[in-house]
Amino acid sequence: MPVGVYLDCGAVLIGGLLGAGLKNKIPKRLHHPLTVVFGISAVLIGVVSFIKLHSMPAVILAMILGTLIGELANLDTRLKKLFKSVIDRLYLKIEGDVENYMNFYIIVAATFCASGTNIFGAMNEAMTGDMTILLSKAVMDIFAGAIFACILGYAMNLIVVPQFVILCAFFYLGKLIMPYISETTLRDFTATGGLITFVIGLSIADVKHFRAVNMLPSLALIFPISWMFSKIF
Questions:
Q1: Membrane spanning segments where (predicted)?
Q2: For labelling, which of 37, 84, 88, 182 has a CA lying 20 to 30 Å from the CA of 52?
């Protein structure tokens, strides 16, 4: 059972509900600095994950091709439209500029749904039974969820649905492909996820906005590319 996945998604949901419910009681002057702190934390997590890489050429090639696919498919815009449609159907309130709101919303969604730490944590739990990574992430996510919900409101809780689906998918995928994944490929996968998490952190901290969602196909491409490089070199 993906207990770690349940705990992490539950933490985001609890944090989101608390943050949305108490948003008027938390001073707005705290929203930005705390958001920056979480962005920097994501940057650090990304760096720690990236240094575990085995083959830098494999990771770079996966990032280039994955981003190219994401840009051509326009994943960022498509997902923003999808989330915006659901938010509208549920009559949830969007405060301020809609474009800025949705840009931040999609970055937060990527943080919870597709960060390298979350995905690796789900696969690691499936492969080893150790949920320490997801448990540690849950501790941070309950606070991150609360702060992000102060900005996004109750609409942020919708993110838990794709988060749960994606992490469960990687959990069971981890069980399925475990016999075929080498240590070097797993390290390259972790590094690729770390690089995307690094980019997401920069966007959250408002250092530079990237369309990080368009980089997500890299997480799928790194498996065959890393395997190919391990056989050639």
A1: 5-22, 34-51, 57-75, 102-122, 142-173, 185-204, 210-229
A2: 37
